[in-house]
UniProtKB/TrEMBL annotation:
<protein>
    <submittedName>
        <fullName>Extensin family protein</fullName>
    </submittedName>
</protein>
<keyword id="KW-0732">Signal</keyword>
<feature type="compositionally biased region" description="Basic and acidic residues">
    <location>
        <begin position="56"/>
        <end position="73"/>
    </location>
</feature>
<feature type="domain" description="Extensin-like C-terminal">
    <location>
        <begin position="92"/>
        <end position="274"/>
    </location>
</feature>
<dbReference type="Pfam" id="PF06904">
    <property type="entry name" value="Extensin-like_C"/>
</dbReference>
<feature type="signal peptide">
    <location>
        <begin position="1"/>
        <end position="21"/>
    </location>
</feature>
<feature type="region of interest" description="Disordered">
    <location>
        <begin position="21"/>
        <end position="79"/>
    </location>
</feature>
<dbReference type="InterPro" id="IPR009683">
    <property type="entry name" value="Extensin-like_C"/>
</dbReference>
Length: 274
């Protein structure tokens, strides 16, 4: 047997050597893995790759039955009702008018069929704001507005008028707009808010009337340097002590020929005087 072993081994070597020669050497096999991937057909350029079907942005869900429409939220009370004075406030205000000597009458509540926000809950029709100081044609307003006008006229307008040439007595106020259901003027906005005139809070003064001199119209009087300019400037400045809004010539074009005065209530008592 020992004699045949080398022969057998040789035979095995000879027959096996053919197989070994045809196989890739082991070290080459390790390299073969990546190489084998190279044998795959080259990837197609992306542009050629057909895009996967795009998913819809929102999956369409089965239609739900519609919920019944919610009832429209109820609006608050009309603006004019919000301003209704308490009995105590109203009594206090009327007492002030009595002390001032105002001539007025109480009239029924004012409302407007075209705009439910317009109106005055407890309107007064004032003809004389002080004894002998007429509101030309009379005017409807809230008591607060009348009271502000009365104190301003008593404490500043009349004494100031006495400083004009010939010391005239202030006997009247020519009015522009008083109560009027409308939007604010001169704001330039497409949908301006409700004017304070629509609530009885505002009054426009177009001219001051005197007993023995010509009316003094409100107009641009910048740097005319006379007493009339001084009077108009003083009137406008002191009005801000009683009214919360004072506009006039120079504020905007809509106010070039009158003083707009109102008692609009703002947060922290803020005033707009121009
Ligand atoms: Zn006005």
């Amino acid at each position: 047997m020992r004699q045949f072993w080398p022969i057998l081994a040789c035979f095995v070597l000879v027959t096996g050597s053919g197989a070994i020669a045809q196989e890739t050497p082991p070290e080459r096999i390790e390299d073969a893995a990546p190489i084998s991937s190279d044998t795959r057909p080259p990837a197609r350029p992306e542009s050629d790759t057909p895009a996967p079907p795009s998913e819809p942005e929102e999956r369409s869900e089965p239609a739900k039955p519609r919920e019944p429409a919610k009832p429209v939220e109820e609006a608050g009370p009309p603006a004019w009702k919000d301003l209704r004075e308490t009995d105590q406030e109203y009594a206090s205000c009327r007492l002030a008018l009595s002390l001032l000597g105002s001539v007025y009458e109480e009239i029924p509540p004012i409302t407007d069929p075209d705009d439910s926000d317009c109106g005055i809950a407890r309107p007064l029709r004032v003809t004389e704001i002080l004894p002998g100081l007429e509101l030309e044609g009379g005017a409807e307003m809230r008591c607060d507005t009348a009271r502000a006008l009365g104190f301003w006229a008593r404490d500043f307008l009349r004494p100031a008028a006495a400083t004009l040439p010939d010391s005239p007595r202030l006997t009247g106020l020519r009015l522009g707009s008083t109560y009027s259901c409308r939007a604010r003027a001169g704001t330039g906005k497409k949908r301006p808010k409700l004017s304070e005139h629509a609530l009885g809070n505002a009054i426009d003064i177009a001219a001051f009337l005197f007993d023995n001199s010509d009316p003094l119209p409100v107009q641009p009087r910048e740097d005319t340097g006379d007493r009339f300019e001084a009077f108009q400037r003083s009137a406008r400045a002191t009005a801000c002590l009683y009214f919360t809004t004072v506009l006039g010539p120079g504020s905007n074009e809509a106010h070039d020929d009158h003083l707009h005065l109102d008692v609009k209530s703002r947060k922290n008592g803020w005033r707009l005087c121009q």
